[in-house]
Amino acid sequence: MKFRTEITIPKPAHRIEHPDKLFLIGSCFAEHMANKLQIAGFSVLNNPFGELYNPVSIRDALERMAGFSALGEEDFVFRDGLWHSFYHHSSFSAPDKQQLQETIRQAAESGAQFLRQARYAFVTLGTAYVYRYRATGKIVANCHKLPADRFDRFRLSLQEAEAALRDAVSFLRRLQPDMRIIFTVSPIRHLKDGLVENQRSKAVLLLAVERVVRELPDCAYFPGYEILMDDLRDYRFYADNLTHPAPAAVEYIWEKFSETYFTAACRAAVLEVEKLNRSVAHRPLHPCSEAFQRFAKQQLNLIARLKEKFSYLDLSRQEQHFRSFLNNSD
After folding, report:
1. For residue 121, what are the β-bridge partners?
2. What is the tens place of the pLDDT at every residue in 191-204?
């Protein structure tokens, strides 16, 4: 008997290799995938403007990275001793407005520079709900805890979401004409909207992505949402807040993703790096002991062999980790 409904993921036209640079943008689920990719030895840039949840905010961020839009004075607000941008994470906020603007400029430049060299872009959509700032009539990415009566909250129509995603693809390809784009809908549930409204919001995103993927070249969809909702389908795969995926779910989705998109050689390298990372995660009780010093030297020898076998891997973080123990023993 079968007790699960596993999802069959279509084989992609192109597969990822370790030398490929990977750009991620979107919701906090993108953070999960970016962490897994970085740990696996990929060159990754994730959300240079901070987490973005809806298609319009993602489109706006890419438009600014592509240099087709600039922020005006009305796009900043001063609150609680800090200047904030309506289009950036609160980590950008600063007491000095010029400092904030410079940080934003640098983030846009570094994002554009990375995108020009990237091979793949992963766009993770969280919600079709948006906030429009009444003073400007613009949809914002971050309300920065301003009073709710300054915003109108509404759900994008299918046509609005689709148009934003088409624009996002266009801006990505202005920076890198050969960009391959993989869309996914975040499985993280927005329970504050209510279960029914959350499903309607996700439905808008799913249908918008379907239209874009069907009509634009080198665009694909990875069913991360469906894997958690319909394959795993159990609260034990959710974190304690019942909205975010538990580590086991993230690991399972990662396995499905790597099986789908990585070449055989890439997967072999990933397995080797993951084994090495488990050694890095080990916290020795006695780092100066003869046994651990021997272990650290063995890992450095392993790193040297991996670099010879997979010359494109960046294992500097792991190498530095084990060398630090040898240095401390001197």
Report:
1. 23, 181
2. 888 889 999 999 99
137 Cβ neighbours under 8 A, 6+ residues apart: none
Domain ranges of the chain: 21-262, 278-330
Q: How many residues does the chain have?
A: 330
C-alpha span between 108 and 103 (Å, rounded)? 9
Using an 8 Å Cβ cutoff, are 127 and 54 in contact? Answer: yes
Structure confidence at residue 1 (pLDDT): 67
The Cα–Cα gap between 312 and 14 comes to 19
CATH code, 21-262: 3.40.50.1110
DSSP code of residue 136: T
Q: What pLDDT does residue 327 have?
A: 60
Supply the mean pLDDT for the chain. 92
Give the C-alpha separation, 11 to 158, whole Å: 27
pLDDT at 91: 94
Around Cβ 290, how many Cβ atoms within 10 Å?
A: 9
106-163 pLDDT, tens digit per residue, is 999 999 999 999 999 999 999 999 999 999 999 999 999 999 999 999 999 999 999 9
How many angstroms separate the CA atoms of 61 and 47, rounded?
9
Q: Where are the alpha helices (DSSP H) in the chain?
A: 28-39, 55-65, 97-117, 158-175, 195-215, 224-226, 247-261, 264-281, 290-309, 316-329
What are residue 77's DSSP bridge partners? 84
d(CA 224, CA 21): 21
Give the separation between CA 77 and CA 82, rounded to whole angstroms.
8
